[in-house]
């Protein structure tokens, strides 16, 4: 048995980092930093990029800013790798508007969460994904992220939507590895051909053993090459290398635990942005309102972790 | 001691129902039904209306639909009662866009939740409300609704924002009556003058005893007169009448528990819309996508509750 | 309509404080302090006492300590008021053992939670209460405390168990006042005759409006007279007095928010014990292992609240 | 780098199944079934047994039943493999009583959860484990099971307790694989020598990649040989075999999803017991009160999964 089940023709797999959005000090899109970030990803050999995900701060952007990001990224990437585009919004009708915008940027896939804010059940979630799929010929991906939307997508429902041609893939950021394993097994048994990617930076190795087709790790913005090496090793079934890379990346992930008194993306994305500033990729570590940038003390601790990982000189 | 602390000049209090949004069978705004609904509220003597709240399905609307609703409601209400306008959205920048739109409709107040989807802490919530207040001269209200945004606003923080002139009032839909009582007491002790309204249909009487200035009950769409009578009795300290009205309204609220296999607004708002259709106020009980309207069996159970409450003939 | 529905013959109602358990500095039961505490309750005119509840630290006691507390309390109370006895334990078989012990102390009622630790559903909860009721002729009460057992008892289930003669009453510490109001209404509609007591110190007034038969407030250990006055006023439908007493008690309840860096009973029961030490009722504020007693700084803040409430000289 | 860090001298690692407790139809300990179950484990080559864990229904037993189980198991095992003994109870004092009992059965380790029912914070949890460790010379293990105790033990705290000699190992049933990986890394960095076992049946392979020393899988009661083969393969770094075994066991784990209308151990342990009855190891599938045994329809679905896994003839 091979490591992974076959996915549908044309569906991207492998390492598809959720692209950060660098900002200038006054909160505008920072194009030079974005160019350096994309170059770093392409140089590392990533298999695609996920634009307007949670790590990309899409939830904080108005429509104009989302479109500005899409325009800039597609311009810089220029078709060198496929793009997944996020359409995160509260309920179906706004998400469909984002789909319409996304379509104009030739996405390899469109990535949608379950509805949120207003509580919905399985029937509404089903209608939601079917309505999004019907709105565009682009392949639709489900983004399973209960920490943000407070609903867990069930493996059986995902596979059912896959079998019906509604979904092409799943980005699993659920933190529920038991559920992920069942998703892989159900997908394989049903021959659905869903692309199954994990979003959890420090347990990608286990997801590969379970049959994941790739990863969407926020930390890959800081160190894409490690995730690419890990994926190639996993596809070659060289598990010793997989583990060594994962252990190193897990040590690097400690940057997100350095900020004091911060939670959510203010801590996590804030740490990624600060690391990239320290590495000379970003000009600032500015965050979207209402989040403040990390301060000097947090940055010093992040530098120490980067040095420990040999990404910076100590 | 009077029942309630004084609020700031010009801040609406009393019964301010969260206005439902009637839809035609194909999901468009149903103006004739809206006219009947508003007339029912005005005839009952409500003190204001809350437009684009959770019960108004604002979370399901795109910007054009939100603006259509505002235009229609302000046209129909024509200044007869003050309007609170909701600006529910994920994070600060989109909420500010909704503030800009709301301003054009001369709101008596603008109602915003804490940020959601992306996890935020007290610092970000503080920045969020201050940024919204700075964006408009209209008075700002905090909408405390943890069941939707998954963050509880602390009484101390709310009073602090009130003392700083950021907030004019609070719509409490937290279900945490201990917290609400502390909010009333802290506001009174600090002399902040926040208007404090409860959103919980069946325990408004206790909130009045605690010192609430009014209520924002979704059920008032079905029976505004009862909530108006309860509020007048509370202000007159006629608690026997308060209780009698509350008990009757609590019995009527059982309509939201009739739908089988539905959760959230599909059940609750669905029951309100179905009741209003049965009462001849709405033409349909259509819900926003991805929610389905309630079916005949649920409607029959709702009719039975309406008959029990003497709103319909049995 | 009278304020409350009739309860079954012999079922205690009114103010039934959950009795604290004073400890000596080395953690033994402190009899002289217990005598002073009980005398304070009896002098205030309480209608009963709830022994071995959460506030009584029963969860922290081994069986011998539980029995020592029961022996001491029944000796001191000497039948002057009825006793409810808690049988809090993980699952049915241990709870039945506690029922056997409780029976020897002539309880007016036995108070049991839903099962906890191992997850159970409605079927198991039903079997649990029926097995406990079958184990003893003493009336059984359900203790609805989801913050500890992580299951909410549904009003419909409680009324069903009441109608079947399994339950005589409910101590509601759920914090869900919507559910409590539905419980009162369902009990009244079904004529079940359940005694319905609330455990929430600062919203007892609203519970009385809703039809509660009494209260089980931990804070009544510090100020039983206020709760007794509030209950008598409620039964006389003198709501202005109810509110005045509740506002005063709510201000006093702020003692539980004074401890810094503590959660759960270490903060709440710790504040009650510290207040009673400051009032000269308890000799120490010692807590059960693994909880530490509150320190001097917390005690100073608690004294300030007591002084504000005129229970201590400033 | 080897797969796992060294543990302390004498600390058991490897496959240590949480032993089920077979019951007769009238709820008594079923000794012949227990003998067959233990023999099955020993024949498969397990490295130890965990007695009185959650899967062993310890939460449902009174003290006499717990002691009966310990007596029977130690008699049957007769020192052939080391035993870990659970001391699950609400708070410190009762858990210490269980430690005293456990000591009499020469445990290789004693396994305790965080306190539960009453809410506790990090200070109380720290005191709790230190008090338990002080109560006995037997090595103490922390049992991280937030689904039951509603507190997550932090990796940093566990390693700190390990470094202080309080803990010898951790049984991780948290479902939080990110936390587990950090625990492994922190333990390795600090040289604490904690034995780190995972309790999650279907992702043991990932835990081995992360550096787990073994597993405590409830499903191993049904198929110990597979878990033993997986562990040996992991120690030999034969990851292809690890994955193949894990995939097969994950398919077998589907038995726990067959029961209809059941949750918690009534479903999970109920499925294990039913499978063992179908395999001829247990005489009945009786569950502890208040849980009902699975019925014929559930058993038929479980048989189908067993047949699919070639454990039964179809």
Automatic annotation (TrEMBL), chains A, B, C, D:
Protein name: 4-hydroxy-tetrahydrodipicolinate synthase
Residue numbers binding pyruvate: 216
Assigned protein family: Belongs to the DapA family.
One of the record's GO cellular component terms: cytosol
Active site per database record: 143 (proton donor/acceptor), 171 (schiff-base intermediate with substrate)
InterPro entries for this protein: Aldolase_TIM, DapA-like, Schiff_base-form_aldolases_AS
PROSITE patterns (alphabetical): DHDPS_2
GO molecular function: 4-hydroxy-tetrahydrodipicolinate synthase activity; N-acetylneuraminate lyase activity
EC number: 4.3.3.7
Alphabetized UniProt keyword annotations: Lyase, Schiff base
Gene Ontology biological process terms from the UniProt entry: N-acetylneuraminate catabolic process
The organism's place on the tree of life at top rank: Bacteria
Enzyme class: lyase
């Amino acid at each position: 048995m091979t490591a992974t089940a076959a996915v549908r023709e044309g569906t991207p797999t492998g390492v598809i980092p959720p692209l950060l959005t660098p900002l200038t000090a006054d909160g505008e899109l920072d194009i030079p930093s974005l160019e350096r970030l994309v170059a770093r990803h392409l140089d590392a050999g990533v298999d695609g990029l996920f634009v307007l995900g949670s790590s990309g701060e899409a939830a904080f952007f108005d429509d104009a800013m989302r479109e500005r990001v899409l325009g800039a990224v597609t311009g810089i990437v220029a078709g060198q790798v496929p793009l997944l585009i996020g359409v995160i919004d509260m309920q179906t009708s706004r998400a469909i508007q984002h789909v319409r915008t996304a379509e104009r940027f030739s996405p390899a896939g469109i990535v949608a969460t379950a509805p949120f804010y207003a509580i919905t059940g399985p029937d509404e979630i089903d209608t939601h994904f079917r309505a999004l799929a019907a709105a565009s010929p682009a392949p639709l991906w489900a983004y399973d992220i209960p920490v943000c939307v407070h609903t867990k997508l069930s493996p059986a429902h995902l596979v059912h939507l896959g079998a019906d041609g509604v979904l092409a893939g799943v980005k699993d950021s659920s933190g529920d590895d038991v559920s992920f394993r069942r998703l892989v097994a159900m997908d394989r048994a049903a021959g659905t051909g869903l692309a199954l990617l994990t979003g959890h930076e420090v347990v990608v190795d286990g997801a590969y053993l379970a049959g994941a087709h790739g990863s969407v790790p926020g930390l890959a913005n800081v160190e894409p090459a490690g995730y690419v090496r890990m994926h190639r090793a996993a596809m070659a079934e060289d598990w010793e290398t997989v583990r060594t890379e994962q252990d190193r990346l897990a040590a690097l992930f400690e940057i997100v635990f350095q900020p004091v008194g911060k939670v959510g993306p203010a801590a996590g994305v804030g740490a990624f942005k600060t690391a990239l500033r320290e590495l000379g990729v970003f000009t600032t570590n500015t965050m979207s309102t209402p989040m403040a940038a990390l301060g000097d003390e947090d940055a010093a601790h992040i530098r120490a972790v980067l040095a420990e990982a040999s990404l910076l000189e100590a």
